[in-house]
Design brief:
The complex is a heterodimer of chains A (873) and B (112).
Chain A: H1 9-18, H2 24-42, H3 44-58, H4 78-94, H5 96-124, E1 136-145, E2 148-152, H6 159-166, E3 171-177, E4 181-187, E5 190-199, H7 203-206, E6 211-214, E7 224-228, H8 229-236, E8 245-248, E9 252-260, E10 274-277, H9 278-284, E11 301-306, H10 312-318, H11 329-332, E12 337-342, H12 343-346, E13 351-353, E14 356-359, H13 362-393, H14 395-404, H15 408-445, H16 456-480, H17 486-491, H18 502-533, E15 544-548, H19 552-556, H20 558-567, E16 571-577, E17 587-588, E18 591-593, E19 604-609, H21 613-617, E20 621-624, E21 637-641, H22 642-648, E22 657-660, E23 663-671, E24 686-690, E25 697-702, H23 708-722, E26 731-732, H24 733-739, H25 742-776, H26 778-786, H27 791-825, H28 836-862, H29 866-871
Parallel strand pairs in A: 5-10, 7-9, 19-24, 21-23
Antiparallel strand pairs in A: 1-2, 1-11, 1-12, 3-11, 4-5, 4-8, 6-9, 7-10, 8-9, 13-14, 15-25, 15-26, 16-25, 17-19, 18-22, 20-23, 21-24, 22-23
Helix pairs in contact in A: 1-3, 2-3, 4-15, 5-13, 5-15, 5-25, 13-16, 13-18, 13-25, 15-16, 18-25, 18-27, 18-28, 20-23, 25-28, 27-28
Chain B: H1 8-20, H2 26-37, H3 43-56, E1 59-64, E2 75-80, H4 82-100, H5 104-109
Antiparallel strand pairs in B: 1-2
Helix pairs in contact in B: 1-2, 1-3, 2-3
The chains are: A alpha+beta (873), B mainly alpha (112).
């Protein structure tokens, strides 16, 4: 047979492009047929020539396609849109189980994401309500002790004046202040402890206080007070507070000169419920005069507001030596470097390590941002997984729709509107959930967050996200399924490829990797907290409380108070100390001892106490003896803790002489380390000396056999009697001690809730997938049963796949989390090792949760009567 | 009534379609024309004429009969419509009337 010849390709192409589209099919065919004829009759060359000639003559480049005028289909007419959603809604109702899983999972994920976004928004907008947010700074200083740079907000009290005089052009306001503390505020019979602080008058302008009564000039007079709205209400109700005289700490009379609107809760000044003039502070604390020249202790804070033109870095550099030349020569060794910390960094970047601003809460902002993102991602993965899995079932529907006349656009719209409907429902549900959970969340996170109903950004991002998720999740069925050929699908020759389920498997693995990672993270956090909690405190925190010495009455009548307390029989011991045992208030310099290395400066945490202090708190002596009234020489006695002894390098500490600024003390004993500061850090070297005058708190130990609730009224009666000017206030040491863990416990709790939610969402997805797989394999299972497979066989068959996926996820998450958590632990000096069992337990937990989820569907499918499953369709 | 003008070539093509009956499509018409008239007829000319005749309503067409030789493309089969037949008959009548009116000596001269 003759080899078939082909006409010139270019001519054919030309024909295809430019010939009349209405007749192109038959013309191309006719020409081909003729060409064969020509080749046989007149030869190839002539045939080619004729073919080309005819082609050229048949070109009709401007012809329009006349025959293809189908009636126009409407993709977006109101009727069609209505129809899309009607069908979508019917589909939702038809598969209630799927819809429920889809909507619940997605709504949970969205709710978590919304909550976290609100939290992030709150954190990031901290302090931002202040008008002068950009200009307000705090004057802080770095000091170097034994090579370690410490950073603090405390400054000598003349710092403000010095800066004011030396750099008048760089600042608009400089405001010295004390610390925001509880003060007893009395008006008539009403005595309450309220949080307040002493400020120089500039504070009112700096914080742009909104005055409800009086003016911002209210702090100019020595005996004045500005009240916040809530405090004014608490004392005066509907009365006019202006001009009323109140008493502070039972010492000074002050006149109300103004009422300001409460300061925003998410700001560093949230506790500031009243303001007192700085001048009153100076006049009521006569000892301050001694701190003048040279500058002494750092006991005040300095706030400032930059002038409009001033650049914070330049000013910061300018004032860096402002303290150096004002202090005593021996203090110059600490190299005080003064700098400015802008308000924008107070909250999120509060931590310093070796003089470098290393961050702080911003870590949590990142952490929760990432967690929120992941939870949302999990929910989206679920949604996508379920919709792609289900879409295969709907291939037939696509076939029928196409056969009946749907165009592709309509199918795309149909599927997209279905997934949009789900996301919109979820978003609605998520907002309801957020509203319900917000009070609990606020309590857990110590916030006052509200949903930002009026913030356009909130709605914009919420709705934007909803639509985006809907479109992404709906895109697979919309674009892939709508491309099916109806003939293939309806004939049943259509096969989803072997690899169609691969993306789904990858998504399941990703989901469980995140969940497992969160479980491991949470467990490590709790292990660390638990480890620190179990650390021996060095003292007995039970039934121990302290009462602050708030008025001169208590100082003068201490012995009487002590005796009366002991007489009640409910009290085991009473003592005074310069700070509560759960904190260090003073770190002093100038310690020296025999054999002290001249290179070190030697600063110690210093606690002044009375004879009975040790017995009250129940410390444990390691060497030597406790303070005793039998030794009059104990007025110059000192007790050290173990760390101090180690630091000083003393072989036999008892009997050694320690000098503090030329005053000599002899060491009489060594106590086991007391955890007074952070339980995550090494205990600081501490010295205890006897001093009955330097006291801030009265420590009270209740009898072991007495109930706390019985003892408290007795204690209160004694204080009421001897200290009538102050409300009876006390704090339990065990509660104070627990506060050291608040931050970590809070993070732990939040992380736990998010972990549980993440697992919940993942399980929902797994549940849906398992039921889908079981349904898809109904016939297979029926046949297997007929052939003799047992229920456990089938259960294994259906569960195996998912268990493998979860195990892979564990394998991925394990090493990542081990690395990440090890990094996290580095910031704690007192830390536990991450135990291997956490990983094992997590893996077992994850697998069993997955197995439980899948088993329900697997067993349900396995026990079904094969007759039923085989006769379906 | 205004009659549609039927050109000479159009008339021949229309007649050929009628002759071929159910087998009338582009190629067969071209080949039949070449055979019957002995003149070389371009396919493109035939195609264009067929299009024109269909537009004028003398022909209808439907698709069908794909073969491998045509690369799987269908043929367009033409059939003469009632109007087409009427037009042919009219043309023939006009011719016959004219022939009939021819003087006998002229007819003799033409060898008829």
């Amino acid at each position: 047979m003759m080899k078939r010849k082909h006409p010139p390709r270019w001519a054919t192409t030309l024909l295809r492009w430019w010939a009349d589209p209405n007749t192109s099919e038959e013309v191309e065919g006719d020409l081909l047929e003729l060409y064969t004829h020509w080749v046989q009759t007149v030869g190839v060359q002539k045939a080619n020539w004729k073919y080309t000639l005819n082609t050229l003559k048949l070109l009709r480049p401007f012809a329009k396609n006349k025959r293809a005028h189908y009636p126009k289909t409407y993709l977006y007419s109101p009727t069609m849109l209505q129809n899309y959603f009607k069908v979508a809604f019917r589909n939702l109702l038809k598969y209630t189980g799927y819809s429920f899983i889809n909507v619940t999972g997605l709504a949970t994920g969205m709710a978590v994401a919304i909550l976290i976004s609100l939290w992030l928004y709150d954190e990031l907008s901290y302090n931002k309500q202040f008008e002068n947010y950009d200009r307000i700074v705090q004057v802080m200083q770095h000091q170097t002790f034994d090579g370690q740079v410490n950073t603090q907000t405390a400054n000598p009290y003349l710092m403000g004046d010095e800066i004011r005089n030396k750099y008048p052009h760089d600042f608009k306001h400089i405001v010295m202040s004390s610390w925001t503390n509880g003060h007893i505020l009395a008006y008539g019979d009403k005595k309450l402890t309220k949080m307040g602080n002493y400020f120089e008058p500039g504070i009112t302008e700096m914080l742009s206080l909104q005055m409800l009564k009086g003016s911002r000039a209210g702090l100019n007079d020595v005996n004045s007070i500005l009240l916040s709205e809530s405090v004014a209400k608490a004392y005066f109700g509907s009365e006019d507070p202006m001009g009323k005289v109140m008493k502070i700490d039972n010492k000074n009379d002050v006149k109300v000169t103004g009422v300001y609107k409460d300061l925003p809760y998410n700001s560093d000044f949230k506790d500031l419920t009243f303001l007192l003039p700085w001048s009153l502070y100076l006049s009521s604390q006569p000892w301050i005069k001694e701190m003048t020249n040279p500058w002494r202790s750092n006991f005040t804070q300095t706030y400032a507001m930059l002038a409009d033109h001033a650049d914070i870095d330049q000013v910061s550099a300018k004032i860096k030596d402002v303290k150096l030349h004002k202090v005593r020569p021996e203090e110059r060794a600490f190299k005080p470097v003064v700098f400015l910390q802008p308000m924008s960094k107070w909250h999120l970047y509060a931590e310093f390590k070796n003089g470098i601003n290393i961050g702080g809460r911003i870590e949590f902002v990142w952490l929760f941002g990432i967690i929120g993102g992941f939870v949302l991602l999990l929910a989206c993965i679920n949604f996508m997984n379920l919709s792609t899995a289900r879409s295969e079932k709907r291939a037939k529907e696509v076939g029928v729709r196409k056969a009946v006349g749907s165009v592709r656009g309509q199918l795309i719209n149909q599927f997209l509107s279905e997934s949009l409907l789900v996301t919109i429902l979820s978003f609605g549900l998520a907002i309801v959930l957020v509203q319900l959970v917000l009070p609990i969340f606020n309590e857990m996170a110590d916030k006052k967050i509200t949903v930002l109903w009026r913030e356009p950004l909130f709605w914009l991002s919420g709705i934007g996200f909803t639509v985006l998720t809907g479109i992404i999740a709906g895109s697979y069925p919309a674009f892939y399924l709508s491309s099916f050929r109806p003939v293939q699908v309806l004939k049943g020759t259509f096969r989803v490829g072997r690899f169609a389920s691969v993306p789904r498997k990858v998504l399941v693995i990703l989901q469980f990797t995140v969940s497992v990672a969160l479980i491991i993270g949470t467990m490590v956090v709790f292990q660390q907290i638990d480890f620190a909690k179990k650390r021996p405190a060095g003292y007995a925190i039970d039934k121990l409380l302290f009462v602050p010495i708030s008025t001169p009455d208590l100082t003068n009548k201490y012995e009487v108070v002590r005796n009366d307390l002991l007489k009640t029989g409910a009290i085991a011991e009473v003592s005074k100390s310069s700070s509560p045992i759960t904190s260090v208030w003073a770190i002093n310099n100038g310690y020296s001892w025999k054999g002290k290395d001249t290179g070190i400066q030697g600063n110690f945490a210093a606690v002044s106490a009375t004879h009975d202090f040790g017995k009250t708190i129940g410390w444990e002596l390691k060497e030597g003896r406790d303070f005793s009234r039998d030794f009059p020489t104990d007025s110059s006695a000192m007790i050290l803790n173990e760390t101090a002894v180690k630091f000083m390098g003393l072989k036999k500490p008892v009997g050694e002489i320690v000098k503090i600024d030329n005053k000599e003390f002899h060491v009489i004993g060594v106590v086991k380390d007391l955890v007074m500061q952070s339980p995550y850090q090494p205990v600081f070297r501490t010295s205890f000396v006897l001093d009955y005058n330097d006291a801030s708190v009265i420590n009270i130990k209740i009898n072991a056999t007495t109930n706390t609730s019985d003892a408290l009224p007795k204690i209160e009666a004694v204080f009421r009697k001897h200290n009538p000017a102050a409300p009876f206030e006390y704090q339990f040491i065990d509660e104070e001690y627990a506060k050291k863990f608040t931050d970590e416990v809070r993070i732990g709790k939040l992380a736990t809730s998010f972990t549980i939610l993440a697992i919940f969402i993942s399980c929902l997805g797994l549940f849906g997938l398992a039921s889908f797989v079981a349904e898809q394999r109904t016939k297979e299972i029926g046949i297997r049963k007929v052939l003799g497979a047992s229920i456990s066989n089938l259960w294994g068959l259906l569960s195996r796949e998912f268990v493998i996926l979860v195990m892979i996820a564990c394998g991925i998450a394990g090493p990542i989390m081990w690395y990440a958590m090890n990094n996290w632990m580095q910031k704690f000096d007192y830390r536990t090792e991450i135990s291997w069992w956490i990983f094992v337990v997590t893996a077992i937990l994850a697998v069993s949760i997955a197995l439980l989820t899948v088993s329900y569907q697997a067993i349900k499918a396995a026990i079904i009567n094969p007759v039923k499953s085989l006769k379906s369709e | 009534m205004k009659r549609t003008f039927l050109g000479e070539f159009e008339e021949i093509v229309l007649l050929t379609v009628a002759i071929l009956g159910e087998e009338a499509y582009g190629v067969s018409i071209t080949q039949e024309l070449e055979q019957k008239t002995g003149r070389s007829v371009g396919f493109s000319t035939v195609h264009t004429t067929l299009q024109r005749l269909e537009e004028k309503g003398f022909l209808t067409s439907q698709m069908g009969g794909a073969t491998a030789e045509r690369g799987g493309r269908r043929k367009r089969f033409f059939t003469v419509t009632a109007t087409g037949r009427k037009a042919l008959v009219e043309v023939k009548q006009v011719r016959e009337e004219l022939w009939g009116a021819l003087p006998p000596q002229t007819l003799q001269l033409m060898g008829g």
